[in-house]
Design goal:
single chain; about 0% strand; mainly alpha; globular; Arp2/3 complex 21 kDa subunit ARPC3
């Protein structure tokens, strides 16, 4: 029987809390932005692919179960099955891509950055396809360009800035965490 390490329990829980807190922090602009993607990038870089992915899954499960931890203090399955739920589910794909890249290629910083960028664009693709499907079922068809202009284009630069900030934060904090959670 494999021994469970404290870090295998603590890190996903800490990551889920970080994502939850950052999901509730909104930067008020014409289009409101949250720090949710920043937190997803952070937990992946700080805790690694496995614990980062588990953090994302725990966060989504807690929100689906009714804790008001999605953007705007929302919660429930209805949020996940709503028009923007695909973007929340897309975080899982970002985590899987990050895990695969870092396991198959290396744990080098450049690999992590490329994995996060690819993961972000897969998140956009899945979320946009989901949005278009839900929108079409509720309101009527929407074109790809209209969906991209609404759901992706305004977020590309802010999300890339959040990605860069998460990488910078993780470069500073990861060594401390590794010492703290040594095997």
């Amino acid at each position: 029987m494999k021994k469970v390490k404290a870090s295998d329990v603590v890190l996903p829980a800490m990551g889920a809390v970080l994502i939850a807190v950052c999901s509730l922090i909104t930067i008020p602009t014409t289009i409101p932005y949250t720090l949710q993607t920043f937190a997803v990038f952070c937990v992946l870089c700080l805790f690694g692919g496995k614990n980062g992915l588990l953090s994302i899954i725990v966060y989504i499960a807690l929100g689906a179960a009714g804790l008001p931890i999605f953007s705007g203090f929302s919660s429930g399955i209805s949020v996940l099955f709503g028009a923007t739920g695909g973007y929340i589910a897309g975080f899982v794909f970002t985590g899987i891509i990050y895990l695969l890249f870092t396991k198959l290629l290396s744990d080098a910083l450049w690999v992590k950055i490329i994995a996060l960028i690819i993961g972000l664009f897969v998140l956009y693709a899945f979320g946009t396809a989901w949005f278009m499907t839900v929108y079409a079922n509720r309101t009527g068809p929407i074109g790809l360009s209209a969906a991209l202009m609404t759901c992706v284009v305004p977020f590309i630069i802010p999300d890339l800035i959040k990605l860069a900030a998460a990488v910078l934060v993780s470069v500073k904090i990861a060594p401390v965490l590794k010492k703290r959670f040594k095997n």
